DNA sequence: GCTGAAAGCTCTATAAG
DNA sequence: CTTATAGAGCTTTCAGC
């Protein structure tokens, strides 16, 4: 991966609908070369996905919270992982170092759904030992 | 925004290079209709950005950490915000409720750069009062 | 690995119903 | 919203460096 690849990635990051010929006009390289470089970046897994960033408020996701979670035992891990991955409310889930086991980033339309998520999904269904929730008041930056 | 818009958004989320005619073959609506719907979704700000998800490891970002940050006083806020937004290492920055003021998500190539970021950028330059760092060991889900 | 040109195809924009 | 059309623009391929 050379400097030209980095430039291409940067352009696609700012607008993934750019075509090879768009990019060709900016960096001086022929269209077929750029098309092939993009294909290779995808194939090598450097580009994971072409996607869109959506406006959460517009999508009715008015609350975004982080929830630290500690599980009882590793016996619960399987169900926990499966449920979390499938839940449409969970934006991210990381296994973390420190006091807790996992950190979830969760988007919800209202507080009653948050209550439901913590009480039913986490505590009851997933047998989470303890959790710690804090709210995102505003976001300065989110890539 | 109706159900068709939601379907279009879902498809673009899974692959933002889909064209109107690609989408037209899946949901039964003419190409001009879909093209116009996408334009409106962009104009309304429901679609914030067309972008790519990159593989962090492949980009040399071997460590991703969360850092909670507490500022001394609101006098430091301006510089803090400006610096954070410009820093290429900072993936996200949220103003949060709870014990700390901000939560940063930071990607770095190695531990010495992490040390540098905490010691120099945060503590020295930005006069951060205290911080609390924890590591992401692995990621189950990240939209 | 890159360039340039040609072929064919696909997309977008527009107009009319 | 649909269909139809025209024109612009894209991707791919291939020969040659």
Automatic annotation (TrEMBL), chains A, B:
Protein origin, superkingdom: Bacteria
Phylogenetic classification of the source organism: Bacteria, Bacillati, Bacillota, Bacilli, Bacillales
Gene3D superfamilies: 3.30.70.920, Winged helix-like DNA-binding domain superfamily/Winged helix DNA-binding domain
Residues of the HTH asnC-type domain: 1-62
Pfam families cross-referenced by the UniProt entry: AsnC_trans_reg (PF01037), HTH_24 (PF13412)
PANTHER family the record matches: LEUCINE-RESPONSIVE REGULATORY PROTEIN (PTHR30154), TRANSCRIPTIONAL REGULATOR AZLB (PTHR30154:SF34)
Keywords: DNA-binding, Transcription, Transcription regulation
UniProt-listed PROSITE patterns: HTH_ASNC_2
Protein source organism: Paenibacillus brasilensis
Protein name: Lrp/AsnC family leucine-responsive transcriptional regulator
Family matches, as InterPro entries: ArsR-like_HTH, AsnC-type_HTH_dom, Dimeric_a/b-barrel, Tscrpt_reg_AsnC-like, Tscrpt_reg_AsnC/Lrp_C, WH-like_DNA-bd_sf, WH_DNA-bd_sf
């Amino acid at each position: 991966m050379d400097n030209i690849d980095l430039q291409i990635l940067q352009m696609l990051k700012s607008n993934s609908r750019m075509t090879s010929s768009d990019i060709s006009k900016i960096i001086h390289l022929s269209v077929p070369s750029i098309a092939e470089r993009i294909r290779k970046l995808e194939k090598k897994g450097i580009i994971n996905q072409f996607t869109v960033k959506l406006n959460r408020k517009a999508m009715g996701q008015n609350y975004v919270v982080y929830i630290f979670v500690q599980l009882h035992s590793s016996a619960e891990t399987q169900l926990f992982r499966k449920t979390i991955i499938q839940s449409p409310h969970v934006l991210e889930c990381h296994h973390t170092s420190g006091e807790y086991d996992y950190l979830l980033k969760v988007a919800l339309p209202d507080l009653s759904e948050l209550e439901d998520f913590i009480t039913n999904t986490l505590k009851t269904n997933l047998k989470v030992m303890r959790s710690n929730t804090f709210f995102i008041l505003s976001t300065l930056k989110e890539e």
